[in-house]
DNA sequence: TGACACAATTGGAACGTTCCAAATATTAAG
DNA sequence: CTTAATATTTGGAACGTTCCAATTGTGTCA
């Protein structure tokens, strides 16, 4: 267990050159002679040298630390896990590393985490903001020249780049599909009404209803937490309505699963007795029974795209805010009652 | 957009003290007068100072960077996402940040990622090693005084700490449960036979069979990739056996889901016509239909525990290798045919 | 009043790298 | 063989922090 760590000076001494030369080798500069380079590299391997990025970064005064910060609001949601994987892919192959943190929707935690990342000198940040994040929260970062890309949830008013999926179009196509199957009373279930994403999806729902020539009824819009439990709650409210809906588009897949649970608890089989459509297409969606009809958003693709965008800005040196909305597509499976080849009946023991 | 960054010297000047004093304030040393502290803090806020950990870390020569590296082999598997969340929780509240990377089972990627983390001066590493990771791969780290905690998959022969779940006991209890339900021919399905985890689980299976007074038949052990697809494959092989099994314990939940798929493809209903038990208790397990009976290992708990262990070693300054196996418990749901209150019949349209 | 403890503050030297300007070695041209 | 051009190499001086030893101020005690 060698105590002192090996520095460029040590290897310079051992290779019989100056530390400057070693530094040049490290940066694979073309100025250095092939022979010297080989020798230096050999010595480095031999002594087990490890590059000290901290020191390098210090000298390069605010230059690239090659660290990308990624903060998501709920990593246990596989949607975000996929997203992080997408980011990691491109970030890693560009020679960067990823600082990943989870805020669990806590805005305080988010602040802490971002501050900490800044102290570590991240060269860019990808963030899916916690609920109620203020649009100005990332101002100091961009002021300091650190590019920020907001994903999934947009932050209207913030002057940062963002990538969101086409929530409007997605919801519209879901409603259209249900209308084509003959449904007239279609509910919109779940989601917190104070978010931009909710607004977009609801707008898509309204447009879809209108396009299908169906009336919009306020009572059919039932908000709740965007979680499984929230779904159960929302469908509960929907089913006691005087004029019951026969189908629902849900804020996201988690809600949709909750809706299925709620239906079953009332002896209704999703897909057969009531049509349900989700949003996100998380991995569980196709595995569930019945398989969930849902709007696919390819979180990994969004992650990759966000990373590319961020890297572009980092390399360009300037952060020109740009907004991208990614295409989505409806994936028809069983829960909407369309493609069902297997009808499930229950009999209680 | 202020160009130059604010340093301790700037705030020292502005506050009318020396940089040393500012440094003391930063470390909240008790040496500094309350009045001075307040003033310095005020100036820091005013000028928008951000601490440069890189520089600090440089001076403190190999001291704490407050970065914990976390590398997992498959983040899209919610088991590992949960684990990462658990780590993040304790790591974050201890004032550290987490570097998270995904190897996708690539050993080259793992090497790259770990090297990169080292360059960034991580003060500790938590790793779920990619398959075929060599026991000596982390030697340089521990030699450099960087504590390493291996989770989930142990690395026999490596002199590092590890936390694995009690695979043996878990499998035993699963087999015992099936035997109590009257099953005699119980298969062991899925998993790669060249891993330590496989060995442990298989050993548990054998002990369980023995304890239940059942014979061990080589043919009932069918390995495959530890994935959903692998599960389909394994059950396929099992069902063509001359003397078919009536139940199976699976290497993990992914395999178990695949087994269910495979059963259904053959018009067999898991839970009713064939009992299946998984391992891990991923979140989807309780949501699936039928809900999966499985061995719960609490990945988040393992993550927390691993982080605690690592922090302890970091604080102690010495990395005494210690091995922990965490308790598991069988969660009985529907797929084993035990607690089923709802029997599902299919009729094909 | 001098001596002494104690509190608070401070200037420089370090940490491991990169950059710059300048030095030296090598080659080509005359 | 000199000169100019080119190819390599090289000492410092930074970067922003922490640490150490030393300094200054403030009160206490004989």
Automatic annotation (TrEMBL), chains A, B:
<protein>
    <submittedName>
        <fullName>HTH-type transcriptional regulator</fullName>
    </submittedName>
</protein>
<dbReference type="GO" id="GO:0003700">
    <property type="term" value="F:DNA-binding transcription factor activity"/>
</dbReference>
<dbReference type="Pfam" id="PF00356">
    <property type="entry name" value="LacI"/>
</dbReference>
<keyword id="KW-0238">DNA-binding</keyword>
<dbReference type="GO" id="GO:0000976">
    <property type="term" value="F:transcription cis-regulatory region binding"/>
</dbReference>
<dbReference type="Pfam" id="PF13377">
    <property type="entry name" value="Peripla_BP_3"/>
</dbReference>
<dbReference type="InterPro" id="IPR046335">
    <property type="entry name" value="LacI/GalR-like_sensor"/>
</dbReference>
<dbReference type="InterPro" id="IPR028082">
    <property type="entry name" value="Peripla_BP_I"/>
</dbReference>
<keyword id="KW-0805">Transcription regulation</keyword>
<keyword id="KW-0678">Repressor</keyword>
<feature type="domain" description="HTH lacI-type">
    <location>
        <begin position="6"/>
        <end position="60"/>
    </location>
</feature>
<dbReference type="InterPro" id="IPR010982">
    <property type="entry name" value="Lambda_DNA-bd_dom_sf"/>
</dbReference>
<dbReference type="InterPro" id="IPR000843">
    <property type="entry name" value="HTH_LacI"/>
</dbReference>
<keyword id="KW-0804">Transcription</keyword>
């Amino acid at each position: 267990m060698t105590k002192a760590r090996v520095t460029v000076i040590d290897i310079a001494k051992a290779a019989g050159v100056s530390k400057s030369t070693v530094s040049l080798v490290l940066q694979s500069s073309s100025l250095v002679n092939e022979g010297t380079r080989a020798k230096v590299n050999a010595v480095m391997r031999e002594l087990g040298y490890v590059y000290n990025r901290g020191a390098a970064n210090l000298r390069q005064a605010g230059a690239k630390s090659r660290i990308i910060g990624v903060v998501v609001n709920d990593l246990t949601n596989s949607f975000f896990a996929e997203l992080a994987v997408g980011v990691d892919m491109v970030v890693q192959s560009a020679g960067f590393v990823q600082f990943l943190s989870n805020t669990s929707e806590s805005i305080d935690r988010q602040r802490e985490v971002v501050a900490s990342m800044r102290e570590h000198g991240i060269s860019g940040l990808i963030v899916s903001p916690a609920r109620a994040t203020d649009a100005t929260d990332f101002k100091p970062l961009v002021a300091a020249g650190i590019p920020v890309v907001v994903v999934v949830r947009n932050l209207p008013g913030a002057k940062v780049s963002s990538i969101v999926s086409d929530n409007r179009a997605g919801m519209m196509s879901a409603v259209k599909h249900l209308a084509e199957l003959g449904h007239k009373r279609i509910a919109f279930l779940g989601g917190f009404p104070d978010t931009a994403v909710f607004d977009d999806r609801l707008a898509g729902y309204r447009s879809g209803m209108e396009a299908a020539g169906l009336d919009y009824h306020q009572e059919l819009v039932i908000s709740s937490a965007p979680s499984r439990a929230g779904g159960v709650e929302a469908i509960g409210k929907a089913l006691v309505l005087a004029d019951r809906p026969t189908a629902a588009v849900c804020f996201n897949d988690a809600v949709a699963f909750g809706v299925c649970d709620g239906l079953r608890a009332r002896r209704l089989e999703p897909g057969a007795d009531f049509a349900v459509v989700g949003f996100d297409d998380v991995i569980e969606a196709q595995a569930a029974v019945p398989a969930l009809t849902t709007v696919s958003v390819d979180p990994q693709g969004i992650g990759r795209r966000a990373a590319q965008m961020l890297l572009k800005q980092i390399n360009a040196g300037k952060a020109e805010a740009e907004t991208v909305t990614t295409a989505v597509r409806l994936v028809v499976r069983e829960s909407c009652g369309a493609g069902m080849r297997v009808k499930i009946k229950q009999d209680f023991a």
